[in-house]
């Protein structure tokens, strides 16, 4: 058995506990499927102005999906939950779902801002902006992250952003991913369990959010909870892929009774609502203190409710005059779902306060799975990491590493091998009447 097999037997539970504990993190150098030639800085981590630098691109650009017959694979899956179906690697992006969850932390400064604010309504504004920012990286991300193996883990510490995070795949059927992040100076704890249900509806794939997210602001003795909106990828079979998020997100401050209700709007017939988010913050007596609006792909603003309503009324009058003589467009189409024309700018109501603005993506993002700078760095193996990380860490998965390096055939073989090994491990546990316990 080579080192790579030993690692993945440990991950999937085929070996005994003794063999798992005997796996040495240092032994994985031979098992890694990546080119370390770009990391020969005598073991040092590059820095810029005293801040650790992270890579800004992947080792290889993404492959073309144009040669793949998607319909031949998906026509048997209509109405089924995709987490129970083995999908070809053409659908993937080179990150595990555990790493995708980590992207919630890209705008951690919003949590730090909430911790510093004395007023509970202002804190709720910052938390609401963070909740929207946490799903902003989904924009144009049409690749599916790899399903984590049971027992797979991911760790990340970002001193420059002031947090550390650990996550683990704690269940395979149903697939449940748990994460725990905390401030390096003890200001907050952010944790939750995510169980995404994916369904294929003919022309689109819908991800139904399952699981509750909790943010604790320790200095204020406050706990906020919410669930994410639905996410839908259109034109899986034909046409240009595009994403929308929709549904109502309720953020509750369980200490004060304050609540923020955010409506992620579906695009609608004319596409005017695409990417829009609109909501309000109310206290425990249900008095509305402010309206929050914007786009999850761009920015979020806050304004007094009365000023917002006045602006909306005047805007509605103008729209009625404009569309008075327009003919409605047909809604049904047997071909592709045409992506509505996106108006990149949010119409800012005078007197509004900016809560959050998205960071621009790197110029080469479109050739790198539409990753943000933050996402580009999540699978990076920095010098010295091999000796510190658990052997179950996502960064050691050979299928993800091969895909990142542009070796698609190798990635596909490794993905199939690991999935088969996981199935064998589950059968073995079932035969021995063993229950999986998190490590």
TrEMBL record:
It holds the Pfam family Oxysterol_BP. One of its GO terms (biological process) is lipid transport. Residues 329-340 have a biased composition (Acidic residues). It comes from the Eukaryota. GO terms for molecular function: cholesterol binding. Residues 312-340, 401-439 are annotated as: Disordered. Keywords: Lipid transport, Lipid-binding, Transport. GO terms for cellular component: cytosol; perinuclear endoplasmic reticulum; plasma membrane. Signal peptide: none annotated. Belongs to the OSBP family. PANTHER family: OXYSTEROL-BINDING PROTEIN-RELATED, OXYSTEROL-BINDING PROTEIN-RELATED PROTEIN 2. This is Oxysterol-binding protein.
């Amino acid at each position: 058995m080579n080192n790579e097999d030993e690692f993945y037997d440990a991950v999937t539970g085929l070996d005994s506990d003794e063999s798992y504990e005997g796996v040495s993190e240092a032994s994985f150098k031979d098992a890694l499927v990546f080119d370390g030639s770009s990391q020969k800085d005598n073991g040092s981590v590059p820095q810029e102005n005293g801040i650790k630098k992270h890579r800004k691109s992947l080792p290889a650009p993404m492959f073309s999906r144009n040669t793949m017959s998607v319909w031949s694979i998906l026509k048997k899956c209509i109405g089924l939950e995709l987490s129970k179906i083995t999908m070809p690697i053409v659908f993937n992006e080179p990150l595990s779902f555990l790493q995708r969850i980590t992207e919630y932390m890209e705008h951690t400064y919003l949590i730090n801002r909430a911790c510093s604010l004395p007023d509970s309504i202002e804190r709720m504004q910052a938390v609401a902006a963070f909740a929207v920012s946490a799903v902003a990286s989904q924009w144009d991300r049409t690749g599916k992250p790899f399903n984590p193996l049971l027992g797979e883990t991911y760790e990340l510490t970002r001193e420059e952003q002031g947090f550390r995070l650990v996550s683990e795949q704690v269940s395979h059927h149903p697939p449940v991913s748990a994460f725990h992040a905390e401030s390096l100076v003890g200001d907050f704890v952010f944790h939750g369990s995510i169980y995404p249900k994916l369904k294929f509806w003919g022309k689109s794939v819908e991800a139904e959010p399952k699981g509750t997210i909790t943010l604790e602001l320790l200095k204020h003795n406050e706990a906020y909870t919410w669930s994410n909106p639905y996410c839908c990828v259109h034109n899986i079979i034909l046409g240009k892929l595009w994403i929308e998020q929709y549904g109502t997100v309720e953020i509750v401050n369980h200490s004060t009774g304050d609540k923020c209700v955010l409506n992620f709007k579906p695009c609608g017939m004319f596409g005017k609502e695409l990417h829009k988010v609109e909501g309000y913050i109310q206290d425990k007596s249900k008095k509305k203190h402010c309206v929050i609006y914007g786009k999850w792909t761009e920015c979020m603003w806050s304004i007094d409710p009365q000023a917002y309503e006045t602006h909306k009324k005047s805007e509605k009058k103008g729209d009625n005059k404009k569309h008075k003589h327009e003919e409605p467009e047909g809604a049904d189409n047997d071909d592709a779902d045409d992506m509505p024309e996106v108006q990149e700018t949010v119409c800012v109501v005078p007197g509004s306060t900016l809560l959050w603005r998205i960071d621009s993506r790197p110029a080469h993002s479109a050739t790198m799975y539409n990753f943000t700078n933050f996402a580009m760095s999540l699978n990076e193996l920095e010098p010295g990491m091999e000796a510190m990380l658990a052997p179950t860490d996502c960064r050691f998965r050979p299928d993800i590493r091969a895909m990142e390096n542009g070796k698609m055939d190798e990635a596909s073989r490794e993905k199939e091998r690991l999935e088969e090994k996981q199935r064998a491990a589950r059968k073995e546990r079932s035969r021995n009447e063993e229950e999986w316990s998190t490590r």
